[in-house]
Design brief:
alpha/beta, D-Maltodextrin-Binding Protein, domain 2, 5-stranded mixed sheet
């Protein structure tokens, strides 16, 4: 009798162990690596997808780097996803270099902007005025971002096309925003390289300097891209991300929530909880 009971217990424990193992396997769908550069909206949406995909059972790694290494890493298969490709203008050089080794997917945001930006309290409207008003403005430089960014390459071209007597300073997105914040609070003149979508346009009263020579090109749309064969490995992720659509309101609120949170992932989690219906439209 005791032997029979012992056998039953062992069988029950074995079945429980198998069940637990299967349940664990279901929860772990593998590791997916996202490459991101430190543009505000890129940090925001990459952390948003990290939270979404981890909730779906994936292990997600975020790797932060400049934009060119993101493309290179994706083309070599070291990264799986990059959430931000600006086309047809801004990322055209990178796209032409790597297009055979990456897969471009659907656009998730339409109608970007980028160029030289100043606070609205500055008495200047066009890049053509920068030289004439240099003494009045009392500044010698334009505060840029990462040196490898396409926006910086366009800005170097703008200096040549408009023959601007300013230094374009390499920096980073966060460092540039720190300089803008300080100048804005003191109502000091400043010229920065900036883009939208960006939370700065909600936080501060800013304006693009007119670009009559169209150095910065027409408005882009933002796409996401994956390494080759990623769709075969994880078709549901590609399906969800192809359903993904954001506008100024949704993306602006995501960036603002993250900016005010303790860290980007915590902010993304909060925003997802407050926008469950929208996120469900992408993933269900």
């Amino acid at each position: 009798m005791r032997r029979g009971i012992l056998i039953m217990v062992i069988v029950a424990l074995s079945l429980a162990a198998c069940s637990g193992s299967e349940e664990g396997a279901e929860k772990s769908k593998g590791t997916v690596t996202l490459g991101l550069n430190n543009w505000a909206e890129n940090i925001a949406v990459s952390n948003m997808w990290k939270v979404i995909l981890e909730d779906k059972g994936y292990d997600i790694e975020l790797k932060s780097m400049e934009k060119s290494p993101v493309w290179a890493g994706l083309s070599q298969g070291d990264l799986d996803i990059a959430a931000e490709v600006w086309l047809p203008t801004t990322d055209k050089p990178l796209y032409e270099e790597y297009k055979e080794d990456i897969v471009l997917h659907e656009a998730w945001y339409e109608g970007t902007g980028l160029g030289l930006v100043v606070p609205s309290y500055m008495d200047i409207t066009s890049m053509e005025e920068l030289n004439d008003k240099k003494n009045e403005l009392g500044i010698e430089e334009i505060v840029g971002i990462d040196p490898g960014a396409s926006l910086m390459e366009m800005s170097r071209t703008a200096l040549e096309e408009y023959n601007l007597n300013y230094d374009l300073v390499d920096s980073s997105g966060p460092a540039m925003m720190s300089e803008l914040k300080k100048a804005y609070e003191d109502e000091e003149p400043i010229v920065v390289t900036l883009w939208n979508p960006h939370w700065a346009f909600a936080e501060y009263d800013l304006k693009y300097l007119e670009d009559p020579k169209n150095v910065y090109g027409e408005a882009d749309d933002i796409f996401f891209m994956t390494r080759t064969n990623f769709s075969d490995d994880h078709p549901e992720i590609v399906e969800w991300m192809n359903n993904w659509q954001m506008d100024d309101d949704s993306l602006g609120s995501l960036m603002a929530t993250i900016k005010d949170a303790d860290d980007a992932e915590t902010g993304a989690q909060q925003w997802i909880e407050e926008n469950e219906e929208l996120v469900s439209e992408w993933t269900n």
